Amino acid sequence: MFSRSLMVLTVALSVISCTTDYSEIQSPDFITTIYADTPRTSFDETDGSVSWLAGDKLALLYCQDDNIISRHNGTATSQTDGMTGEFEAVLNGTPEPPATSICRFYALYPRKSFISAEGNRIHCSMPTVQNASAASYDTDAAVLYGISEAVAGAVPENVSMSFRHIAAYGAIDIIPPASMASSAEPVYVTITAELPLAGGFSFDIDGNGLSTETNIGKSLRINFTGHEPSARFACIPTDLSGTPVTVTFSTSVGICSKTFTPERLKFVAGRTSRFTVNMSECTLGPQIGDVLWSDDFETALPTAATAGKADTVLGEYDPAAEGSSCRLFGNADRSGLVYTGSYAMFTEYTDTSDPRFDGVVFAHKGSSDGFIAIENIPVYSLSAVELVFGTNASSCSITAGYDGVYSSAKLNVASEGGSMCRTTIDLPAGTKTLSLRISGNSKLMRRFDNFTLLAAE
Predict the structure, then answer these.
(1) At a CB cut-off of 8 Å and minimum separation 6, what does 64 contact?
(2) CB count in 10 Å sphere of residue 145
(3) Can you give the pTM of this predicted structure?
(4) CA-to-CA distance for 267 and 51, rounded, in angstroms?
Protein backbone atom coordinates (compact mmCIF):
# COMPACT_ATOMS: atom_id res chain seq x y z
CA MET A 1 0.00 0.00 0.00
CA PHE A 2 1.41 3.37 -0.99
CA SER A 3 0.97 6.39 1.22
CA ARG A 4 0.17 9.89 0.07
CA SER A 5 3.07 11.48 -1.83
CA LEU A 6 3.80 14.44 -4.09
CA MET A 7 4.46 14.76 -7.82
CA VAL A 8 5.31 17.93 -9.74
CA LEU A 9 3.75 18.75 -13.12
CA THR A 10 5.24 21.47 -15.31
CA VAL A 11 2.71 22.97 -17.74
CA ALA A 12 2.46 26.30 -19.57
CA LEU A 13 -0.62 26.58 -21.79
CA SER A 14 -3.30 29.09 -22.80
CA VAL A 15 -6.75 27.50 -22.56
CA ILE A 16 -10.02 27.92 -20.67
CA SER A 17 -11.40 26.27 -17.57
CA CYS A 18 -13.08 22.88 -17.43
CA THR A 19 -15.75 22.14 -14.85
CA THR A 20 -17.04 18.80 -16.14
CA ASP A 21 -17.42 16.24 -13.39
CA TYR A 22 -15.90 12.77 -13.57
CA SER A 23 -16.66 9.96 -11.12
CA GLU A 24 -13.89 8.95 -8.76
CA ILE A 25 -12.49 5.41 -8.68
CA GLN A 26 -14.10 3.46 -5.87
CA SER A 27 -12.06 2.06 -2.93
CA PRO A 28 -8.65 3.23 -4.14
CA ASP A 29 -5.55 1.40 -3.03
CA PHE A 30 -3.13 4.13 -4.02
CA ILE A 31 -3.50 7.84 -3.24
CA THR A 32 -1.01 10.57 -4.00
CA THR A 33 -0.94 14.34 -4.39
CA ILE A 34 0.34 16.03 -7.50
CA TYR A 35 1.53 19.63 -7.67
CA ALA A 36 1.52 21.66 -10.87
CA ASP A 37 4.05 24.49 -10.79
CA THR A 38 2.75 26.14 -13.95
CA PRO A 39 -0.75 27.06 -15.15
CA ARG A 40 -3.04 24.95 -17.28
CA THR A 41 -6.69 25.62 -17.89
CA SER A 42 -8.03 29.12 -17.27
CA PHE A 43 -7.23 31.68 -19.98
CA ASP A 44 -7.26 35.45 -19.53
CA GLU A 45 -7.22 37.06 -22.99
CA THR A 46 -6.26 40.50 -21.64
CA ASP A 47 -2.76 39.50 -20.55
CA GLY A 48 -2.42 35.92 -21.82
CA SER A 49 -2.14 34.44 -18.33
CA VAL A 50 -3.56 31.05 -17.47
CA SER A 51 -4.27 29.13 -14.29
CA TRP A 52 -5.53 25.82 -12.96
CA LEU A 53 -9.03 25.54 -11.55
CA ALA A 54 -10.15 23.27 -8.74
CA GLY A 55 -11.92 20.28 -10.23
CA ASP A 56 -9.72 19.97 -13.34
CA LYS A 57 -9.13 16.25 -13.92
CA LEU A 58 -6.41 14.22 -15.57
CA ALA A 59 -6.45 10.57 -16.60
CA LEU A 60 -3.41 9.03 -14.90
CA LEU A 61 -1.87 6.01 -16.67
CA TYR A 62 0.76 3.76 -15.11
CA CYS A 63 3.36 2.36 -17.53
CA GLN A 64 5.86 -0.41 -16.85
CA ASP A 65 8.58 -1.29 -19.36
CA ASP A 66 6.86 0.74 -22.11
CA ASN A 67 3.54 -1.02 -21.57
CA ILE A 68 0.51 0.60 -19.96
CA ILE A 69 -0.78 -1.47 -17.04
CA SER A 70 -4.43 -0.52 -17.42
CA ARG A 71 -5.57 -2.15 -14.16
CA HIS A 72 -3.65 0.59 -12.31
CA ASN A 73 -5.04 3.55 -14.26
CA GLY A 74 -6.33 6.42 -12.14
CA THR A 75 -7.49 10.00 -11.90
CA ALA A 76 -5.80 13.19 -10.73
CA THR A 77 -8.05 16.03 -9.56
CA SER A 78 -7.03 19.64 -9.00
CA GLN A 79 -7.69 20.71 -5.41
CA THR A 80 -6.99 24.43 -5.79
CA ASP A 81 -7.34 27.41 -8.10
CA GLY A 82 -4.33 29.42 -9.12
CA MET A 83 -1.10 29.49 -11.05
CA THR A 84 0.13 26.52 -9.04
CA GLY A 85 -2.29 23.59 -9.00
CA GLU A 86 -2.34 20.84 -6.39
CA PHE A 87 -3.78 17.55 -7.62
CA GLU A 88 -4.91 14.56 -5.63
CA ALA A 89 -4.12 11.48 -7.69
CA VAL A 90 -5.76 8.10 -7.16
CA LEU A 91 -4.57 4.84 -8.73
CA ASN A 92 -6.65 1.70 -8.90
CA GLY A 93 -4.69 -0.94 -7.05
CA THR A 94 -1.07 -0.94 -5.85
CA PRO A 95 1.62 -1.40 -8.55
CA GLU A 96 4.47 -3.71 -7.48
CA PRO A 97 7.07 -3.46 -10.26
CA PRO A 98 10.15 -5.74 -10.34
CA ALA A 99 13.40 -4.04 -9.49
CA THR A 100 14.48 -4.23 -13.14
CA SER A 101 11.33 -2.55 -14.54
CA ILE A 102 11.30 1.01 -15.79
CA CYS A 103 8.18 2.80 -14.55
CA ARG A 104 6.48 6.03 -15.65
CA PHE A 105 3.23 7.94 -15.30
CA TYR A 106 1.35 9.33 -18.27
CA ALA A 107 -1.39 11.93 -17.86
CA LEU A 108 -4.16 12.97 -20.26
CA TYR A 109 -6.27 16.11 -20.04
CA PRO A 110 -9.24 16.29 -19.95
CA ARG A 111 -9.99 13.06 -18.08
CA LYS A 112 -13.22 12.51 -20.02
CA SER A 113 -11.36 12.35 -23.34
CA PHE A 114 -9.69 9.06 -22.32
CA ILE A 115 -11.30 5.87 -23.64
CA SER A 116 -8.83 3.03 -23.13
CA ALA A 117 -5.20 1.98 -23.38
CA GLU A 118 -3.37 -1.22 -24.10
CA GLY A 119 0.26 -1.97 -24.79
CA ASN A 120 1.80 1.29 -25.89
CA ARG A 121 -1.39 2.74 -27.50
CA ILE A 122 -3.79 5.26 -25.96
CA HIS A 123 -7.33 5.73 -27.33
CA CYS A 124 -9.15 9.02 -26.88
CA SER A 125 -12.16 10.92 -28.15
CA MET A 126 -12.64 14.55 -29.11
CA PRO A 127 -16.24 15.90 -29.05
CA THR A 128 -17.83 16.72 -32.39
CA VAL A 129 -19.98 19.36 -30.67
CA GLN A 130 -18.11 22.03 -28.73
CA ASN A 131 -19.06 25.14 -26.77
CA ALA A 132 -16.73 28.02 -27.40
CA SER A 133 -16.37 31.78 -27.68
CA ALA A 134 -14.25 34.29 -29.54
CA ALA A 135 -11.77 34.24 -26.64
CA SER A 136 -11.36 30.57 -25.75
CA TYR A 137 -12.08 27.04 -26.85
CA ASP A 138 -13.86 24.14 -25.16
CA THR A 139 -11.43 22.34 -22.85
CA ASP A 140 -13.42 19.14 -23.18
CA ALA A 141 -11.79 19.03 -26.61
CA ALA A 142 -8.37 20.47 -25.75
CA VAL A 143 -6.47 17.19 -25.42
CA LEU A 144 -3.03 17.41 -23.75
CA TYR A 145 -0.60 14.71 -22.79
CA GLY A 146 2.05 14.52 -20.07
CA ILE A 147 4.93 12.11 -19.45
CA SER A 148 6.85 11.75 -16.18
CA GLU A 149 10.49 10.89 -15.78
CA ALA A 150 11.36 7.19 -15.64
CA VAL A 151 12.05 5.45 -12.31
CA ALA A 152 13.67 2.02 -12.04
CA GLY A 153 11.84 -0.59 -9.96
CA ALA A 154 9.40 1.77 -8.21
CA VAL A 155 6.26 3.81 -8.71
CA PRO A 156 7.36 7.38 -9.58
CA GLU A 157 6.96 9.92 -6.78
CA ASN A 158 7.81 13.62 -6.65
CA VAL A 159 8.38 13.66 -10.39
CA SER A 160 8.27 16.55 -12.84
CA MET A 161 5.83 16.04 -15.68
CA SER A 162 5.74 18.16 -18.83
CA PHE A 163 2.69 18.36 -21.10
CA ARG A 164 2.28 18.71 -24.84
CA HIS A 165 -0.70 19.46 -27.07
CA ILE A 166 -2.24 16.54 -28.89
CA ALA A 167 -5.10 18.71 -30.20
CA ALA A 168 -4.76 21.38 -32.84
CA TYR A 169 -6.74 24.60 -32.56
CA GLY A 170 -8.69 26.85 -34.84
CA ALA A 171 -10.29 30.28 -34.69
CA ILE A 172 -13.07 30.99 -37.17
CA ASP A 173 -14.52 34.42 -37.92
CA ILE A 174 -17.76 34.69 -39.88
CA ILE A 175 -18.63 37.74 -41.95
CA PRO A 176 -22.44 37.37 -41.66
CA PRO A 177 -24.97 37.76 -44.49
CA ALA A 178 -25.61 41.39 -45.38
CA SER A 179 -29.33 40.82 -44.86
CA MET A 180 -28.87 39.54 -41.29
CA ALA A 181 -30.57 41.88 -38.82
CA SER A 182 -28.34 43.57 -36.27
CA SER A 183 -30.50 42.11 -33.49
CA ALA A 184 -29.94 38.53 -34.71
CA GLU A 185 -27.71 36.26 -32.62
CA PRO A 186 -25.20 33.66 -33.86
CA VAL A 187 -26.16 30.15 -32.67
CA TYR A 188 -23.54 27.75 -34.04
CA VAL A 189 -21.16 27.10 -36.92
CA THR A 190 -20.50 23.69 -38.45
CA ILE A 191 -17.30 22.87 -40.34
CA THR A 192 -17.54 19.82 -42.61
CA ALA A 193 -14.65 18.36 -44.63
CA GLU A 194 -13.53 15.13 -46.27
CA LEU A 195 -10.93 14.57 -43.54
CA PRO A 196 -11.58 13.85 -39.84
CA LEU A 197 -11.90 16.84 -37.52
CA ALA A 198 -13.07 15.19 -34.30
CA GLY A 199 -14.23 11.88 -32.83
CA GLY A 200 -12.08 8.91 -31.87
CA PHE A 201 -8.32 8.77 -32.33
CA SER A 202 -5.24 7.11 -30.83
CA PHE A 203 -1.52 7.71 -30.38
CA ASP A 204 1.46 5.90 -28.88
CA ILE A 205 2.93 6.46 -25.42
CA ASP A 206 5.43 8.94 -26.81
CA GLY A 207 2.53 11.07 -28.05
CA ASN A 208 3.27 10.27 -31.71
CA GLY A 209 1.73 8.15 -34.47
CA LEU A 210 -1.72 9.73 -34.22
CA SER A 211 -4.42 7.92 -36.19
CA THR A 212 -8.18 8.30 -36.34
CA GLU A 213 -10.65 5.62 -35.30
CA THR A 214 -13.67 4.26 -37.15
CA ASN A 215 -16.02 6.70 -35.40
CA ILE A 216 -14.29 9.75 -36.83
CA GLY A 217 -16.19 13.00 -37.12
CA LYS A 218 -15.79 14.81 -40.42
CA SER A 219 -18.20 17.48 -39.21
CA LEU A 220 -17.46 19.69 -36.22
CA ARG A 221 -20.13 21.92 -34.65
CA ILE A 222 -19.10 24.87 -32.48
CA ASN A 223 -21.85 26.49 -30.40
CA PHE A 224 -21.39 30.23 -29.93
CA THR A 225 -21.51 31.41 -26.34
CA GLY A 226 -21.07 35.10 -27.16
CA HIS A 227 -22.78 37.68 -29.35
CA GLU A 228 -20.08 37.81 -32.03
CA PRO A 229 -19.85 35.29 -34.93
CA SER A 230 -16.33 34.26 -33.92
CA ALA A 231 -15.22 31.17 -32.03
CA ARG A 232 -12.22 29.08 -31.13
CA PHE A 233 -12.24 25.30 -31.33
CA ALA A 234 -10.05 22.23 -30.94
CA CYS A 235 -9.69 19.55 -33.60
CA ILE A 236 -7.64 16.54 -34.62
CA PRO A 237 -4.47 17.76 -36.39
CA THR A 238 -5.17 17.68 -40.12
CA ASP A 239 -4.40 19.50 -43.35
CA LEU A 240 -7.46 20.76 -45.24
CA SER A 241 -5.42 22.61 -47.86
CA GLY A 242 -6.89 21.91 -51.29
CA THR A 243 -9.82 20.03 -49.72
CA PRO A 244 -13.48 21.12 -50.10
CA VAL A 245 -14.78 22.58 -46.84
CA THR A 246 -18.39 23.47 -46.08
CA VAL A 247 -19.17 26.01 -43.37
CA THR A 248 -22.76 26.23 -42.13
CA PHE A 249 -23.70 29.29 -40.10
CA SER A 250 -26.81 29.14 -37.90
CA THR A 251 -28.41 32.25 -36.43
CA SER A 252 -31.55 33.12 -34.49
CA VAL A 253 -33.19 34.14 -37.79
CA GLY A 254 -31.97 31.45 -40.17
CA ILE A 255 -29.15 29.35 -41.51
CA CYS A 256 -26.81 29.50 -44.52
CA SER A 257 -23.91 27.49 -45.93
CA LYS A 258 -20.85 28.10 -48.06
CA THR A 259 -18.48 25.57 -49.64
CA PHE A 260 -14.95 26.55 -50.60
CA THR A 261 -11.55 24.95 -51.22
CA PRO A 262 -8.88 26.70 -49.14
CA GLU A 263 -5.46 27.07 -50.71
CA ARG A 264 -3.94 26.68 -47.25
CA LEU A 265 -5.73 25.58 -44.09
CA LYS A 266 -3.60 23.36 -41.89
CA PHE A 267 -4.27 22.50 -38.24
CA VAL A 268 -1.08 21.64 -36.33
CA ALA A 269 -0.96 20.24 -32.80
CA GLY A 270 -0.50 23.01 -30.25
CA ARG A 271 -1.01 25.82 -32.76
CA THR A 272 -4.01 27.96 -33.66
CA SER A 273 -5.03 28.43 -37.30
CA ARG A 274 -7.27 31.47 -37.73
CA PHE A 275 -9.42 31.91 -40.83
CA THR A 276 -12.34 34.01 -42.01
CA VAL A 277 -15.38 32.88 -44.00
CA ASN A 278 -17.16 35.65 -45.89
CA MET A 279 -20.88 34.86 -46.00
CA SER A 280 -22.02 38.43 -46.74
CA GLU A 281 -23.65 37.38 -50.01
CA CYS A 282 -25.32 34.26 -48.59
CA THR A 283 -29.06 34.07 -47.98
CA LEU A 284 -30.33 32.96 -44.60
CA GLY A 285 -32.77 30.06 -44.82
CA PRO A 286 -34.66 27.83 -42.38
CA GLN A 287 -33.62 24.71 -40.55
CA ILE A 288 -35.78 21.79 -39.46
CA GLY A 289 -38.50 22.93 -37.07
CA ASP A 290 -38.43 26.60 -38.10
CA VAL A 291 -41.79 28.22 -38.86
CA LEU A 292 -41.99 29.17 -42.55
CA TRP A 293 -45.47 30.70 -42.43
CA SER A 294 -48.19 31.16 -39.85
CA ASP A 295 -51.53 32.95 -39.80
CA ASP A 296 -54.62 33.06 -37.61
CA PHE A 297 -56.36 35.80 -39.69
CA GLU A 298 -57.19 37.83 -36.59
CA THR A 299 -56.40 41.11 -38.35
CA ALA A 300 -58.73 40.35 -41.28
CA LEU A 301 -61.95 42.39 -41.68
CA PRO A 302 -64.72 39.76 -41.71
CA THR A 303 -67.95 39.78 -43.70
CA ALA A 304 -71.39 39.26 -42.24
CA ALA A 305 -72.44 37.20 -45.26
CA THR A 306 -73.32 33.58 -44.62
CA ALA A 307 -72.55 32.36 -48.14
CA GLY A 308 -69.73 33.21 -50.47
CA LYS A 309 -69.75 33.69 -54.21
CA ALA A 310 -67.95 31.60 -56.82
CA ASP A 311 -64.33 32.64 -57.31
CA THR A 312 -64.72 35.40 -54.74
CA VAL A 313 -63.39 36.06 -51.27
CA LEU A 314 -65.68 38.18 -49.10
CA GLY A 315 -64.17 40.32 -46.40
CA GLU A 316 -60.81 42.05 -46.51
CA TYR A 317 -57.32 40.93 -45.61
CA ASP A 318 -53.84 42.05 -46.64
CA PRO A 319 -51.21 39.62 -45.30
CA ALA A 320 -48.48 42.18 -46.07
CA ALA A 321 -50.07 45.01 -44.11
CA GLU A 322 -48.29 46.42 -41.08
CA GLY A 323 -49.56 44.64 -37.98
CA SER A 324 -50.92 41.71 -40.00
CA SER A 325 -51.32 38.41 -38.18
CA CYS A 326 -49.43 36.75 -41.06
CA ARG A 327 -45.81 35.81 -40.35
CA LEU A 328 -43.04 34.53 -42.64
CA PHE A 329 -39.70 32.99 -41.71
CA GLY A 330 -37.07 35.61 -40.91
CA ASN A 331 -39.67 38.38 -41.16
CA ALA A 332 -39.42 38.06 -44.93
CA ASP A 333 -41.34 40.30 -47.34
CA ARG A 334 -45.01 39.23 -47.36
CA SER A 335 -46.06 41.22 -50.43
CA GLY A 336 -45.80 38.14 -52.67
CA LEU A 337 -48.40 36.19 -50.69
CA VAL A 338 -51.88 35.90 -52.19
CA TYR A 339 -55.00 34.71 -50.33
CA THR A 340 -57.70 33.57 -52.77
CA GLY A 341 -60.65 31.18 -52.85
CA SER A 342 -64.06 30.22 -54.22
CA TYR A 343 -67.21 30.60 -52.13
CA ALA A 344 -64.71 31.81 -49.58
CA MET A 345 -64.83 34.48 -46.91
CA PHE A 346 -63.27 35.87 -43.79
CA THR A 347 -65.85 35.53 -41.08
CA GLU A 348 -65.97 35.57 -37.29
CA TYR A 349 -67.03 32.83 -34.89
CA THR A 350 -67.52 33.20 -31.16
CA ASP A 351 -69.35 30.02 -30.17
CA THR A 352 -67.02 27.27 -31.36
CA SER A 353 -66.60 24.09 -29.34
CA ASP A 354 -62.84 24.73 -29.31
CA PRO A 355 -61.94 28.26 -28.08
CA ARG A 356 -58.73 28.13 -30.13
CA PHE A 357 -60.86 28.70 -33.21
CA ASP A 358 -62.92 31.60 -31.87
CA GLY A 359 -62.46 34.86 -33.74
CA VAL A 360 -61.81 35.55 -37.41
CA VAL A 361 -61.32 32.50 -39.67
CA PHE A 362 -60.87 31.81 -43.38
CA ALA A 363 -63.88 29.76 -44.51
CA HIS A 364 -65.66 28.40 -47.58
CA LYS A 365 -68.94 26.77 -48.51
CA GLY A 366 -69.50 24.00 -51.07
CA SER A 367 -67.60 20.71 -51.06
CA SER A 368 -67.04 20.50 -54.81
CA ASP A 369 -66.33 24.11 -55.78
CA GLY A 370 -65.53 25.78 -52.47
CA PHE A 371 -61.94 26.20 -51.33
CA ILE A 372 -59.51 28.59 -49.71
CA ALA A 373 -56.00 29.14 -51.07
CA ILE A 374 -52.76 30.63 -49.77
CA GLU A 375 -50.21 31.07 -52.52
CA ASN A 376 -46.49 31.80 -52.90
CA ILE A 377 -45.20 30.81 -49.43
CA PRO A 378 -41.35 30.77 -49.57
CA VAL A 379 -39.95 27.28 -48.81
CA TYR A 380 -36.23 27.83 -49.60
CA SER A 381 -35.65 24.67 -51.67
CA LEU A 382 -36.51 22.40 -48.72
CA SER A 383 -37.29 18.73 -49.35
CA ALA A 384 -40.42 18.62 -47.16
CA VAL A 385 -42.65 20.81 -45.01
CA GLU A 386 -45.17 20.05 -42.28
CA LEU A 387 -48.56 21.78 -42.35
CA VAL A 388 -50.64 22.13 -39.18
CA PHE A 389 -54.03 23.86 -38.95
CA GLY A 390 -57.37 23.75 -37.22
CA THR A 391 -60.72 23.07 -38.89
CA ASN A 392 -64.30 22.10 -38.15
CA ALA A 393 -64.21 19.59 -41.03
CA SER A 394 -63.69 15.94 -40.13
CA SER A 395 -61.48 15.66 -43.21
CA CYS A 396 -60.27 17.90 -46.00
CA SER A 397 -58.34 17.73 -49.25
CA ILE A 398 -55.23 19.69 -50.11
CA THR A 399 -53.84 20.43 -53.56
CA ALA A 400 -50.28 21.76 -53.55
CA GLY A 401 -48.71 24.09 -56.07
CA TYR A 402 -44.96 24.26 -56.59
CA ASP A 403 -43.51 27.53 -57.87
CA GLY A 404 -46.97 28.52 -59.11
CA VAL A 405 -47.87 25.22 -60.82
CA TYR A 406 -50.55 23.14 -59.09
CA SER A 407 -50.28 19.37 -58.96
CA SER A 408 -53.12 17.18 -60.23
CA ALA A 409 -52.89 15.03 -57.11
CA LYS A 410 -54.89 15.72 -53.96
CA LEU A 411 -53.84 14.94 -50.42
CA ASN A 412 -56.67 13.83 -48.13
CA VAL A 413 -56.16 14.69 -44.46
CA ALA A 414 -58.33 13.68 -41.50
CA SER A 415 -58.46 15.88 -38.41
CA GLU A 416 -56.82 14.61 -35.25
CA GLY A 417 -58.00 15.11 -31.71
CA GLY A 418 -58.86 18.71 -30.92
CA SER A 419 -59.93 19.50 -34.51
CA MET A 420 -56.30 19.81 -35.64
CA CYS A 421 -55.00 18.56 -39.00
CA ARG A 422 -51.35 17.69 -39.54
CA THR A 423 -49.65 16.48 -42.70
CA THR A 424 -46.23 16.40 -44.37
CA ILE A 425 -45.86 17.64 -47.94
CA ASP A 426 -42.89 16.47 -49.99
CA LEU A 427 -41.48 19.15 -52.28
CA PRO A 428 -39.89 18.68 -55.71
CA ALA A 429 -36.16 19.44 -55.70
CA GLY A 430 -35.40 23.14 -55.83
CA THR A 431 -38.91 24.36 -54.99
CA LYS A 432 -38.86 28.02 -54.02
CA THR A 433 -42.56 28.67 -53.23
CA LEU A 434 -45.50 26.55 -52.12
CA SER A 435 -49.20 27.23 -52.73
CA LEU A 436 -52.00 25.46 -50.85
CA ARG A 437 -55.60 24.98 -51.99
CA ILE A 438 -57.74 23.47 -49.23
CA SER A 439 -61.39 22.35 -49.21
CA GLY A 440 -63.61 20.71 -46.60
CA ASN A 441 -65.77 17.62 -46.88
CA SER A 442 -69.34 18.98 -47.13
CA LYS A 443 -71.44 21.86 -48.45
CA LEU A 444 -71.72 23.23 -44.94
CA MET A 445 -69.57 26.16 -43.95
CA ARG A 446 -66.02 24.85 -43.42
CA ARG A 447 -63.64 27.08 -41.54
CA PHE A 448 -59.86 26.94 -41.27
CA ASP A 449 -57.67 28.70 -38.72
CA ASN A 450 -54.32 28.79 -36.91
CA PHE A 451 -52.09 27.72 -39.80
CA THR A 452 -48.45 26.84 -39.20
CA LEU A 453 -46.06 25.64 -41.90
CA LEU A 454 -42.81 24.13 -40.59
CA ALA A 455 -39.54 23.20 -42.24
CA ALA A 456 -39.45 19.38 -42.09
CA GLU A 457 -36.46 18.31 -44.18
Answers:
(1) 95, 97, 101, 102, 103
(2) 24
(3) 0.71
(4) 25
